[in-house]
Amino acid sequence: MAFMEKPPVGKVLLDDTVPLTAAIEASQSLQSHTEYIIRVQRGISVENSWQIVRRYSDFDLLNNSLQISGLSLPLPPKKLIGNMDREFIAERQKGLQNYLNVITTNHILCNCELVKKFLDPNNYSANYTEIALQQVSMFFRSEPKWEVVEPLKDIGWRIRKKYFLMKIKNQPKERLVLSWADLGPDKYLSDKDFQCLIKLLPSCLHPNIYRVTFATANESSALLIRMFNEKGTLKDLIYKSKPKDPFLKKYCNPKKIQGLELQQIKTYGRQILEVLKFLHDKGFPYGHLHASNVMLDGDTCRLLDLENSLLGLPSFYRSYFSQFRKINTLESVDVHCFGHLLYEMTYGRPPDSVPVDSFPPAPSMAVVAVLESTLSCEACKNGMPTVSRLLQMPLFSDVLLTTSEKPQFKIPTKLKEALRIAKECIEKRLIEEQKQIHQHRRLTRAQSHHGSEEERKKRKILARKKSKRSAIENNEEHSAKYSNSNNSAGSGASSPLTSPSSPIPPSTAVEHAPF
């Protein structure tokens, strides 16, 4: 298929960032092994679930592949004798469930291709490296001056984005990086506008945006070439990792956790906020800020992957901010993601969970003030500050930036309007997802409350009281009928005497409240 040909009709665009959960429902013993029946669910909808069958050997194979992460994962050990005993199988099932819980709640592992293929083979059976190579090979037929040096395998976190180290034939010592990416679920631009905007990216000049050397696109993917940077990204600096290593190896389990110096935090933070403000003022949606998307060039931060929002790719932190209904614009998404980035620069690692209840000691209280405004419970509940507001905060307001490069990014009026509409569509999908998650959370809380031991006791007590009250009312009604029948039998005689023990009918008087 030539690079500029149309993609196949009916292509399914999954959001790869929607979490998968897995629960072992049962096990079945065959002649020499045990199979575990697992229910996998995408997101919050029970309807979006399926069954898979896995053996222990499948778990073992996955675990071996994940060893590159450097994490000590809790896979139950092998057992050669007595591994068909009922008690052993039940115990192993608990251990395997714990293993699934760990890999599906680890933010990096749950998004990696290995785990996705294990849990959802139907949607992740394609060889994306092979697809990318085919597309890149077609591109080289029309652009013969480029040449592939080697694939940069798994250096990024995205399943459908692949990287290749490149060179120009007449400049063999110069190294470049080619990135190829498939379309995502938030691609709302028309094919024509999409291709025009992708080809416009090399004209974007800003001291804090990493220059695109070449860019082209078809209706199903985009291909961009940038200079290769030996020092790597801001995340590589923080984690002291090698840029060419796989993502799992670089960032899952750093050997030494150490944040940056205060002056670095201030300077890098100010530079990143300035470029975000530039893009926001231009009406260009970003939404993809994280430490791996910030290239370091000396002491200068340069933003990467402006094409992601045009391709409609979901954000690295989407599973975080989709939980908070006040983070519902791409501007507020950028600010929230900046909070994650600032936390990583400060402490040398990502936060354990978001929102963050309390922050560890930082090099300055000014750092904590910014973190609280972007990651705290109050911030996530009430909404994010603007980029302009962050620039005015003490941490960044006294940072002086010196650059001779004048920002330049001319977007035609027609394409600006297309970007505005696409941005609204992206935000609309986010708001709808947040609404569904909020409703699901409320329903889950109500069901949990309804099923709690304390609530069951309360309902039993109320049921007994209601039953007792009903019995008393029935007795009183029966006594009243008996009394009335006696009065009728008297035929005008004086009222019969009532014994002190006879029940007194309830009063029928109505008490009126004063006006």
From TrEMBL:
- Annotated Low complexity bias: 483-501
Q: Which residue numbers delimit the PX domain?
A: 14-126
Q: Which CDD domains match?
A: PX_MONaKA (cd06871)
GO MF annotations in UniProt: actin binding; ATP binding; phosphatidylinositol binding; protein kinase activity
UniProt domain Protein kinase: residue ranges = 88-481
Give the matching InterPro entries.
Kinase-like_dom_sf, MONaKA_PX, Prot_kinase_dom, PX_dom, PX_dom_sf, Ser-Thr/Tyr_kinase_cat_dom, SortingNexin/PXDomain-PKLike
Q: Does the keyword Cell membrane apply?
A: yes
Q: What segments bear the compositional bias annotation Basic residues?
A: 437-448, 457-469
Which SMART domains does the record associate with it?
Answer: PX (SM00312), S_TKc (SM00220)
Query: What Gene Ontology terms describe where this protein resides (cellular component)?
Result: early endosome; late endosome; plasma membrane
Q: Which GO terms describe its biological process?
A: early endosome to late endosome transport; endosome to lysosome transport; negative regulation of monoatomic ion transport; protein targeting to lysosome
Keyword check for Cytoplasm: yes
Keyword list (alphabetical) reads:
Actin-binding, Cell membrane, Cytoplasm, Kinase, Membrane, Transferase
Region annotation (Disordered) maps to 437-515
Location of the protein in the cell: Cell membrane; Cytoplasm
The free-text function statement in the UniProt record for this protein reads: Binds to and modulates brain Na,K-ATPase subunits ATP1B1 and ATP1B3 and may thereby participate in the regulation of electrical excitability and synaptic transmission. May not display kinase activity.
Which family, according to the similarity comment? Belongs to the protein kinase superfamily.
The name this protein goes by in its record: PX domain-containing protein kinase-like protein
Organism of this sequence: Rousettus aegyptiacus (Egyptian fruit bat)
